[in-house]
Amino acid sequence: MLSLNVGVGNIVNVASPLLFDCLNVDRLRLPSVDLVCDVQHLPFRSHIFQDVFCFHVLEHTKNPAQGLAELVRVGSRMVELEVPHRFGSMAGNHRGKDKNDVGLWHTCSFRTLWFHQCLKHYRRCVKVLYEFPLNLLIHVWVYLEETK
After folding, report:
1. Residue 133: is the preceding peptide bond cis (ω within 30°)?
2. Among 66-75, 79-88, 95-104, whose mean pLDDT is lowest?
3. Contact between residue 138 and residue 83 where contact means Cβ atoms under 8 Å apart
4. What pLDDT does residue 44 have?
5. CA distance linking residue 106 with residue 10, whole number of Å
6. Which helix (H) or strand (E) is 66 found in, with range?
7. pLDDT at position 105, please?
8. Strand ranges (E), 1-148
9. CATH number, position 55
10. Which of 8, 110, 118, 131 lies most in the core, judged by the most C-beta atoms within 10 Å?
11. pLDDT at 131 over 70
12. Class of residue 135 by CB neighbours under 10 A (exposed 0-12, middle 13-18, buried 19+)
C-alpha cells in the first residue's frame, strides 16, 4: 500500500529514505513534489494511505486541527509528524528561507496537550524530542485504531 509524505519540500522521502512507494505532496510546485495540494484539504479518499508522514507542516497552516484531521482521515495505519514546541527556538514567527513568502511563517506552535485533545478518539503516542541547545520539538505517532 502507498504511503503519503506531506510537505516534502525539496527532499524526496524525507520520512524514510527506504520508503519507495510514497506519494510526495507539498503546497509548492517543486521538483520532488508529485502533487500540489494543501494539508488542510487533501484530495484523497479516506484511509487510502497505509502510513502518512508530515514533518514541519502544521505550524504553517491557518487551521492546524483541520490539517491534523485530514492526515488522520487519509491514513489507515499510522500518522507520524513533527512540529515545534511552543517553548522551542522554532516557535512563533520563525521565517523560512524565502523571506518574500508569507506562507513560510510559522503561524502557531504546539504543546503535547493539544495533540491529546485533538486525538482523544484514537490511540496515540506523543513523545517530546529535545534537540539541544535551543530546539524543542514534538514528535507524534498516531496509531489509527479506534478506541472502544
Report:
1. yes
2. 95-104
3. yes
4. 97
5. 18
6. helix 64-74
7. 74
8. 3-6, 22-26, 35-36, 49-55, 75-84, 122-131, 135-146
9. 3.40.50.150
10. 8
11. no
12. middle
CA quadruple 5, 6, 10, 15: dihedral positive or negative? negative
Contacting residues for 113 by C-beta, under 8 A, at least 6 apart: none
The structure's pTM equals 0.81
Range of the domain at 81: 3-146
19: helix, strand or coil: coil
pLDDT score at 66: 96
Tens digits of residue pLDDT in 34-60: 999 999 999 999 999 999 999 989 998
Separation CA 90–CA 92 (nearest Å)? 7
Confidence at residue 75, expressed as pLDDT on a 0 to 100 scale: 94
- Cell numbers that stand for 103 in this block: 506562507
91: its cell numbers:
516557535
Determine the Cα–Cα distance for residues 46 and 44; give it in Å rounded to an integer: 6
57-76 burial string, b = 16+ CB within 10 Å, else e? bbbbbeebeebbebbbbbbe
The number of distinct structural domains making up the chain is 1
Q: In the structure grid, which three cell numbers stand for residue 4, read together?
A: 503519503
